[in-house]
Amino acid sequence: MTILGKDLIGLAGLTREQITTILDVAEPLKAISERAIKKVPTLRGMTVVNLFFEPSTRTRISFEFAEKRMSADTVNVAAAASSVSKGETLVDTARNLEAMRIDMVVIRHPASGAARFLAERIESNVINAGDGTHEHPTQGLLDLLTLRDKLGSLDGKRICIVGDVLHSRVARSNIWGLQAMGAEVAVCGPRSLLPNAIREMGVQVFDRIEAAIEWADALNVLRLQLERMQLGYIPSLREYNRIFGVTRARLERAPRDLLILHPGPMNRGVEIDSDVADGPHSVILHQVTNGVAVRMAVLYLLAGNKASLADVAKGGAA
Amino acid sequence: MSAPLLLTGGRIVDPAQGMDAVGDLLIIDGKIASVGGTIQGPDGARRVDCSGLVVSPGMIDVHVHLREPGREEVETVASGAHAAAAGGFTAVAAMPNTKPVTDNQAMVGFVKRQGEAAGFARVYPYGAISVGQMGETLAEFGEMVAAGAVAVSDDGRPVENSHLMRTALEYAQTFGIPVVEHCEVMSLAHGGSMHEGVISARLGLKGIPSEAEEIDVMRCILLAKLTGGHIHLCHLSSKGSVELVRWGKDQGVNVTAEVCSHHISLTHEAVEGYDTNAKMNPPLRTQRDVEALQQGLKDGTIDLLVTDHAPHHYDEKEREFADAPNGIVGLETALGVNVTWLLESGVLTLSQLVDRMACLPAKVFHLPGGTLAKGSIGDVTVFDPSREWTVDPARFKSKGRNTPYGGRKLRGQAVRTIVGGRIVFELNG
Amino acid sequence: MADEILELNDGTDGLVLVGIHRRGVQIAERLAEVIREREGIDIPRGALDITLYRDDLQTVGPRPVVGKTVLPVPIDGMVVVIVDDVLYTGRTIRAALDELADFGRPARIMLAVLVDRGGRELPIQPDVVGKQVEVGTGGRVDVCVLALDGRDEVVVTGVGSGA
Questions:
Q1: Which of A1, B138, B270, C54 has the fewest C-beta atoms lying within 10 Å of its C-beta?
Q2: Is C130 helix (H, G, I), strand (E, B) or coil?
Q3: What burial class does residue B346 get, using C-beta atoms within 10 Å of its C-beta: 0-12 exposed, 13-18 middle, 19+ buried?
Q4: Could you give the ipTM of this predicted complex?
Q5: Looking at the domain C2-134, which fold is it?
Q6: Could you report the per-residue pLDDT of C41-57, keeping only the tens digit for each?
Q7: What subunits touch chain A, counting only 3 or more CB pairs under 8 A?
Q8: Residues of chain C positioned with their CB less than 8 A from the CB of A39
Q9: Which of C21, C50, C52 to mutate to test the interface with A (most CBs of A within 10 A)?
Q10: Mind listing the pLDDT tens digit for each residue in B97-139?
């Protein structure tokens, strides 16, 4: 059996052993990006399509670096998300790509479940680079790797995810990944931006950022999508910053040194203040560096894996 | 007129007459001529052995979407009526959310004629409550009823304007028809694609809370109380809705309610894996809701069972969950699902099941049939409640294949469907 | 083996020992110890993990875990001695040569192996050999080293006809 199945759709359902293996493989791969010749021949001859139905600079570039450093041939496809009435459907796009004999697809799509939908319909390996408000597993993995680098083991460590959990695929991947690795997970944010069923997901809820800071070993501060205000989830960005913003003044009252993570891109002065983002607690750039290594590890572990009979019976892959 | 039809040796279950006994049934000139005991048919009568089978009043599904006119590639009145017959239904009532909307006498007449021409199950048209189902102007109930409409509804969407709903409830009384509401508060349900709960939170899908239905259920009951009109509530899906209807009936409000076969059998767990065949509106909810709906059917709070048969082209469902259309086909699985989840599990007796699928639909919607009493129309369902079969969507008579029951084993299947004394469906083998 | 290496190199100048994961690393360490005792000089040692350079990744089943490649000094102009436990098909050494090329341009690359079991599939020859054994394709050669296996031993099983 392979360590991962055919695809990486999410961290939900991955075991501690599987996640540990991915992180362990990522560890030596970090060094490749430090070499003068930043390239290994591992995926030579493989074709990877970065199929992005949503604009993304950071994730796409990180995947592209990872693919190129593993010697895969990459093609970037920036597709408009299919609307119900016009445009090529996702399944047609997928079949067309596969007809061109590709090996892997990295997909970013605004609809939850789109990555799994694709994975169930093509033989190529599929890596979810973010589907709607569902999961963003490689972001979750790079967060785990960063936390492991800084905290050692994640067992019993307290991680609080701050902000718009309701609409965040990063939050979901973090929750499942952290829980699998033995960490305690909490969320903090306005109740209008937390799922009603959040406690059933096994996480604590903090209504006050001060309480979260007192409790946590690390804060993963989510980006607040500016349209949330227009849609009426919160009254104003100003009030959000005053109540939930991660500020230096608040961090100075923390009982212990906190790590500050942020998946980017940041809204400075909204969810996070500049002096925190650029300050000593921040591991944000470390996350970006780890992102490439984690994605190289996932590419390496998935390449060429076929759907197992067990996966087919389940009607999909892990 | 077809030859006289004599069904022999079946278990005749007719709750309308309190009948449950093995006997014969004779239909002459499209009407029930004699029922019960041993009947010597007239010369030339066609004899059909029904021993080991249940003979019941024809089953009626008062909530189907036949898509004609407008989406004939998805379903037509004929293909839908054929599917109905294959599922054991002798009559269906077709919702008016066609393209264009069935909101005038000409359209109502068209649907009715298409049904008659098809010659399978009877097709009773609905008229829209508002012109174009736009929720603004009352449609012409009187002319639509004269053309054959049996009820009015804006199904597919609610009548959001409470004044319009009040007026509809008042005006409909003139013609003795129920006003049928799709209960939903749109601003709460907006953008949602499944039940709001732990599974929607996990899958990252926007949820539709039960309250989006319940608030409208309460509003409609209160408006029916105010006006004395007959409100019939569509496809109830939540425990809270059952409780509100129970309250309304206790208050003496003229409220009736229906539940879909899928809501008494499946939960939101069916959505795991983003199965678009588990996407419908209202959505599948929790086990608690399923049990409350079953209980509501048993104690009579919920009057009747429907399918909300909603065919879609296969590639419309073959897409991202949030973008996929709502609804599933149900006509050819409903009897099996209802027997499997309600009869086999002991929630309903056989007589109660027939009551909820045949008698009460006729009674609530003032339709012919619903009984095998002498002189009533010769609409009969002959079914085998213990026959086990596997759902194979490829064999559906409906053009739709979108079902969450594909590959499932069900118990209970129609063997013969008889409309006006004519066998319109017979199970092979 | 240590003597031969020094002989071939005319001493310890510019010498780097690079062991191949995992047992090659241990053997390189032992060679360095011997050289330290003889010459009183500590030669730089590195480790090479060739997993990412293998030509059979699509066929090996479970994806092997990747180890760390560490080269202590820039290898440009140096004499690099690749050290491994068993030389068989030569494919590992091919991978190691490719990997070293990504790190620089040594003046010379030599190959030292504890056991040469024959059966080469590529034109690769060792410069220094601890022991030559002819083992058929069905046979196995297992090298045990103290640090990893608790004992020093070379086990040959299923000795064939020499192919």
A1: A1
A2: strand
A3: exposed
A4: 0.90
A5: Rossmann fold (3.40.50)
A6: 999 999 999 999 988 87
A7: B, C
A8: 102
A9: C52
A10: 999 999 999 999 999 999 999 999 999 999 999 999 999 999 9
